[in-house]
Every structure is written in C-alpha cells, then in structure tokens.
Write a structure and sequence with these properties.
This protein has two domains: 124 residues, 3-Layer(aba) Sandwich (Rossmann fold); 67 residues. Helix content is 45%, strand content 14%. It contains eleven helices and seven strands. A five-stranded parallel β-sheet has the order 5-4-1-6-7, with helices on both faces. The chain has a two-stranded antiparallel sheet with strand order 2-3. Strand 4, helix 7 and strand 5 form a beta-alpha-beta unit. Helix 4 runs antiparallel to helix 5. The longest helix is centred in the middle third of the chain and has 12 residues.
Length: 201
C-alpha cells in the first residue's frame, strides 16, 4: 500500500537554512569563514540547542573557550534569522497540492524550542501541517528512533502509513530502518515526481 500521510523535515526541505548565509557577512574571506564554521561554531556544538539547551547557555560556554571570537559566536543566537534564505518553492507547492487532496501532513524537525515559532512563521506551508514534533521540546532528536516512534504515536500513524522527507542521509536511513517510506530530499525538482510515483498528487 502507498503511504497515506507525509512527515516533513523543516530545514533545507521547507525553508533554506545555512549558517554560512550569516557568517559570510561576518567573515568576508572564505577561508576565515570555513575555519570558523569548521573549528568554532560547528554543527556538533550546535546540536545541544536542538535538544533543549538554550542558545544563550550554548553560546556562553563556547565564547568562554574562544574569547577571540566572542562576537561572532553570539551572532549565532542574536542573528539567527540571517541564516535563512527563504522557503523552497517546490516544497511549498507540493504541500499545497497534498493539502488540496486531503493528505494528512505533519512535521518532524531537529529544532530549538526557542526558534520553532519564528520558523513556522517563515512560510504559509507550515500552516498546512496538522501537528509538529520538535526535538527541542522533546529532548531527543533525529536519528534517534525514539523521536520517530513519538511522532507516530502522537499522530496516530504507523511507519508504513508515512512518507518521510528529510535532507539528511542519516535521518532517512533511521526512518527506513523503522519501516517508513522515505524520500531523501537533495533536489527540489525531484520532489513532485516522487509524490506522483506514490499516487499522492
């Protein structure tokens, strides 16, 4: 049976997010920007904010270890919206098409509780989601199987009912191992054909 519901990731699936969008303004020299994002404000350092740690706490700890970059580190918190470069039109169109056909849609995102509301305001497509599981509110994040199970429990679904769309290969692999149908979002143009192939639009 084809899936009957969609479970959407947010960053780089519905809205474009990249720390470099902000930090290339702070470090105009590309090698300086690369060095900062590779050795100071890394994704591993950011991860605890997606599990409920506040931005202020996370930035303060890192700034204490790298005082020479204090201002740039705090920009991660104070200038967070500048990491976004708008919604992805192909995804917005797909969400609207699915909504028109009455397909239930939900969100599952690794996202801080502090930025959830502002992110949901970035596109009208988010209003089509009937529910959201956010890692920062739950204290567990993808690819931990627990958060996928939580989403199914909360939305009254089984993995076999769901097409899960995410840009992370690790998150996709974890969902597939649990029995979800999956679409690895790497090319916005490939989304509509993937939905059509499953008879969803």
């Amino acid at each position: 049976m084809p899936p009957r519901a969609l479970l959407w990731d947010f960053g780089n699936v519905i809205v474009r997010w990249n720390p470099r969008t902000l930090y290339q303004k702070i470090f105009p020299e590309p090698t300086d920007c690369d060095r900062f994002l590779t050795h100071v404000c890394t994704m591993a350092w950011h991860a605890p904010t997606d599990c409920g740690v506040t931005f202020a706490e996370n930035c303060a700890g890192l700034a204490a270890r790298h005082p020479e970059h204090e201002s740039a580190i705090w920009a991660w918190h104070r200038r967070w919206p500048e990491m976004f470069s708008g919604p992805i039109p192909e995804t917005e169109a797909a969400i609207e098409a699915l909504h028109a056909r009455g397909v239930p849609q939900y969100g599952l995102s690794n996202i801080s509780h502090e930025t959830l509301d502002s992110t949901l305001a970035m596109s009208p497509a988010f209003a089509r989601l009937a529910g959201v599981v956010a890692s920062g509110l739950e204290g567990v994040m993808k690819p931990d199987p627990a958060i996928y199970r939580l989403a199914c429990e909360r939305f009254g679904l089984s993995p076999a009912d769901v097409l899960f769309v995410d840009d992370s290969a690790k998150n996709i692999a974890a969902a597939a191992a649990l029995g979800f149908d999956v679409h690895h979002f790497t090319d916005p143009a490939a989304l509509a054909p993937a939905l059509e192939q499953r008879g969803l639009i």
